[in-house]
Every structure is written in C-alpha cells, then in structure tokens.
C-alpha cells in the first residue's frame, strides 16, 4: 500500500535540527506497516536532510560549525548574491548533504539505529517553514 504526506516543518534558525518525531506525527499510516520503505524529500534548495546522531546535541552544533567553515559566506568569487550572503552557501551545503532519505520501516516505525535521527539541516539564517513530502510503501 502507498501513502503520501506533504507537511510543513515549523520554521527554525540556521543549524541542524532533529525532526524525526515531527515528521512521524504527520504520517499515521506508518504505524500500520509491518515492513516497508519511507522516503522523505525536502522541497527546497537551501535546506537539506541527513540521518545522524540523535542523543548528543553537540554533534549538531559541531556539524554547523564544520559546514560554516567548509562553505563560508561572502567569498569574492560568488556570483549568486542577490538573496543574501547566506543563500549561495546554503545551496552548496544542501547539495553536499542531499534532499532525501530512504529508510526501512519495521513494525510501524522507521528502522533506525539506536542513536540515529532525521535532521533538518537549515542552511539559511531565516529559511522559514520547510515543506517535506513523505512517501510510504509497505504492508
């Protein structure tokens, strides 16, 4: 059986944010699936998704620090600057991390590792609400 949900994540400041529970709250059909796949896609070019550590918040702040150093703002060779100094770096960071995740479903939940959670990676200072499409397929 197929199910698809389009949801808006609440606006967040720049950084890496755990959104696993927020996403699952909008996908009630997953609770009925014994086995399947969950595809999560973000419809934006300046935010991304990744799967990583869900216990220690310093991992998320370290991610933010590393990405800001790896892809700095205000480089003189950037041409795409009309939307602010954080815009082009946000596009680059989004391309590095990606716009989707495919996760296994087991017994009504994503079958994640003990310390894994879904991150919304907000790369803009004020990105606003982010739209995510979740597609479930399973039995």
UniProtKB/TrEMBL annotation:
Kindly give the Pfam families that the UniProt entry links to this protein: YjbQ (PF01894)
Going by the entry's taxonomy, the superkingdom of the source organism is recorded as Bacteria
Q: Which InterPro entries match?
A: UPF0047_YjbQ-like, YjbQ-like_sf
What SUPFAM superfamilies does the record tag this protein with? YjbQ-like
Q: Which PROSITE patterns match?
A: UPF0047
Instruction: Give the similarity note.
Output: Belongs to the UPF0047 family.
Full protein name: Secondary thiamine-phosphate synthase enzyme
Species for this entry: Pseudomonas linyingensis
The taxonomy runs:
Bacteria, Pseudomonadati, Pseudomonadota, Gammaproteobacteria, Pseudomonadales
């Amino acid at each position: 059986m197929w199910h698809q949900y389009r949801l808006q994540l609440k606006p967040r400041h720049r950084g890496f944010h755990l959104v696993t529970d927020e996403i699952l709250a909008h996908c009630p059909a997953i609770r009925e699936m014994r086995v399947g796949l969950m595809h999560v896609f973000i419809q934006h070019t300046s935010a991304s998704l990744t799967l990583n550590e869900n216990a220690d918040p310093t991992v998320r702040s370290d991610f933010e620090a590393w990405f800001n150093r790896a892809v700095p703002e205000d480089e003189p060779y950037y041409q795409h600057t009309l939307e602010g100094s954080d815009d082009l770096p946000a596009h680059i960071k989004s391309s590095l991390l990606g716009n989707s995740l495919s996760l296994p479903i087991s017994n009504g939940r994503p079958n994640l590792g003990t310390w894994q959670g879904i991150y919304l990676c907000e790369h803009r200072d004020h990105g606003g609400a982010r739209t995510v499409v979740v597609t479930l397929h399973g039995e």
